[in-house]
Records
---
Amino acid sequence: MAGAAAAAGARQEVADARRIVVKVGSSSLTTAAGGLDADRVDALVDVLAKHQDREIVLVSSGAIAAGLAPLGLDRRPRDLARQQAAASVGQGLLVARYTASFARYGRRVGQVLLTSDDTSRRAHYRNAYRTLDQLLAMGAVPIVNENDTVATDEIRFGDNDRLAALVAHLVRADLLVLLSDVDGLYDGDPSRPGTSRIAEVHGPQDLEGVSIGSAGKAGVGTGGMVTKVEAARIAAGAGIPVVLTSAVHASEALAGGPTGTHFLRTGRRTADRLLWLAHASTPRGALVLDDGAVRAVVERHSSLLPAGIAAVEGEFSAGDPVELRDGTGHPVARGLVNFDAREIPRLIGRSTRDLARELGPAYEREVVHRDDLVLLHH
């Protein structure tokens, strides 16, 4: 009985959510041939537009898929340049379709394209939040996508499921809804008899022994169930409940109905951008720390000073994300570095006071400030 009451309470939390991030995958918006399916887009918008009293941010895949047919491509290209070309053509078509569809309800949309670089740096993170918050305040529906036309492998989120989890954290959402072509997480291959849908996930322990497949069956997306479960884990860990279901069950999901898989919150809500640094940044290099610096960073949450660095690896510039490693090469933290890679060798092992006296006051600062540093828990 207690379990049923808890389930009802969790679903009520979904129904009561005021600010919601909804993510929809390519396979839910496109035809098998790779073009946008206007009827599918309209069906999704019909559901979302009914919720006039809620603030909805839509993270939408589909740009690359929408650009395939107009460019005469019969399948998703493997090389980055042609993917970016398809995204460039398709993103305009995607937003035009959403603009026309929401206009039927007198609703405006705003396009927001992000790269992970935009959101792990402090000023860019604040700007992204302000833009999204202002669009919502003005009654518009932000349509968010990865900026595929400029994103290189180094600054890619890699999949829109993870992007949606991070956007939910960024806008301080009450709920994340992940829509795909599968109506939830199953304890095995859903096409095989004897498997059943997992209604609730209270934490990682509920997924032990569950085989999670990859790759969508439509062949136009990049994600699969693996990326959705990872996105749900990130959001739930940041204090945001998640419902994972199919696009055809979107209305029931938003109403708090018993559809899909509900991931309950496992962590506390935070308003900082360190979640982005941990999950959305790709290190451009590494700093190897001595044992004392590892203890200072990990146990005392101190900034990293030049005196604690034993070696530097890679090519990076001030402001880039770097990995902090212990003497065995194990990554212990990630942070935004305050110096270029070529500057660091002459700083290694020296005190900031000595450096300031010899090189000037600009060198009397941390190599990685504790406010720009996140510990990695492995």
---
Amino acid sequence: MKPAAGLLVTAVFLWLILRQVDPGAVAAVVGDLALPWLAAALLLLAGDYALRILRWWWMLRVLTPTLPAGACVWPYLSSIAVNNVLPLRAGDALRAFGFRRELHSPAMRVLGTLVLERLLDMTTLLALFFVGLLAVPTDLFPQAITVSAAWLVGTTALALGLLLVLAPRLPALLQRLAAQPALAAHGWSERVQGWGQHFIETFAVLRRPADVLALLGLSLLIWLLEAGVLGSVALALGASAGAGAALFAMATGTLSTLIPSSPGYVGTFDYFTLTALMAYAVPQTQAAAIALTVHAVLWMPLTLLGLGYLLVRGQGFVAGAIAARTETRLAE
């Protein structure tokens, strides 16, 4: 039911876009795409994902110091590709369960890094969103989006606060949970203890202020580069969207991917990116062309790279998928 609901959400947002713009006019704008600026966007995208992989490796190496950074490249790109084409965050499950040998890490530890990754991204995107919002007249941007973002700020701050406060106490809390009679009676205590230990080990990175600052700095650079991708696409289409518009549109469009939709966030990302660009006085047709083109730039190269690797990997991918399914059932 969830994938079906996601497709319905996608259809609704695509309909909202079509109500606002003429597809023929958008196609004409895209047809005049300047290739040098498109090449610049792809170079920025490469830098963006190189930093994402570096950030992920930084988290993993806290407990696996001998892990080479290169071992994180294909697990990361493959997970992004699978998320782009399959529902239910299947790529996250693949990254956690399908590449344990390459990463020299248990699945729950990898899963912990994904949680940290989401919190870092959410913190950075919300900061960029509200900075960009300062330059937007209140009547040019839907109030409902601003209110939703404010709720996200509160939720994210609460989650980070709890994580920082509870991190030193998590081992004791886990031990108490594993000792519950209901779990012990079914022989689950040791298993829960092991899974939980691997999961909370990840948060050791939060004990060192230098690591926290490095991860926050990398997160900011990542999203500045991704905003640069949008800005380069805008220039490729002859639009005069400035740096503020690019940052605000990328933050708004990316935050909208929290809304359940089809794989690849079709419809939601495009509609909210279009809305944010229009708030910065970008003409409607150009804003739609930018939103759709930058979505294609973000989606296509990464999907082709990741799926290409999985196809080449062949039997190893099948084995990883079987292992992922088995461990998911055991966890349930």
